[in-house]
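Format notes (please read before filing issues)

Several people have asked whether sequences and structure tokens are stored in separate files. They are not. Every record keeps both together, in the order shown below: the sequence lines, then the token lines. Line labels are part of the format and must not be stripped during preprocessing.
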Amino acid sequence: MSISSFLAGTQTPLAAIADFIPASVASVAQPAPAATSPMSLGDFHFTAFEVPENIQHGMKQITVTHTLIGGRRVVDAMGASYDPIKWDGILLSQDAEERRDSLKRMAASGRSYTLTWGNTALDVVIEDVQFDEKSAFQIAYSISVCVLEVAVTEAAQGSALQAATTDLGNAVGVAAPTGLTGIRDGLSTVLKTAQQVRSGTAQIVGVWNGLNAAKGQIETALADANGIVGAIGSIGQITENTSSTINDLERASFAFERLAQLGATGGYVGRAVVNVRGLTGF
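Then the structure lines:
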């Protein structure tokens, strides 16, 4: 038997419920810490009978189908679209009316909130909230929310930062022995900042800005090295054993080595940029 069916079938007088709630259920009314609440919507943490028995949710792929001559079809996949998420429960506590009003204010604000349960985290807007009041202590509710996007959880954020930190360490390792002092020092500074980042802090923006500055330095150095190679011309056409020719060969060798090092460094930095971009919202 479901909770709703059980409560609907009870014949307990309201006075008896009022006597019962403060003694036995008042503790349920207190908002649970986010770490222990099985379901949260923003700062509203669902507890006890407020937690739904089931959550309706799903998603579909947005597609555009083109039918060609002969009946062949080409489908353009345009990304995922989440269906509205719906659930219901019961506000059964001494402060049920206050918690009902909290949900009303959240719905009226039109703000986005992070909805979490299990390992799911989504940014949502409340589309509809309805209440069925049995008493001041027993208020059934139902909610429907519109999904905006998958939220970046603390765990996901930590994973992305760790990946970016690893790539930065590798980039410093490649750049260190090459004489690319400016790039090496810049990457070392960004690496130090990334290692000190705490979830949700503004330091992430500092990492982002540092990565883009380093990326710009690498692109400039790549252009310089390519310019050296292009100015020398084809090594196969060099026939004279002159000091100028030897100098050109040395410069070409240095430029090719620099290109390889910059390519490796740029690859690490580029991947770090991708990981950090997802944390900044840029």
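For reference, the curators noted about this record: The chain has a mean pLDDT of 74. The chain has seven helices and eight strands.
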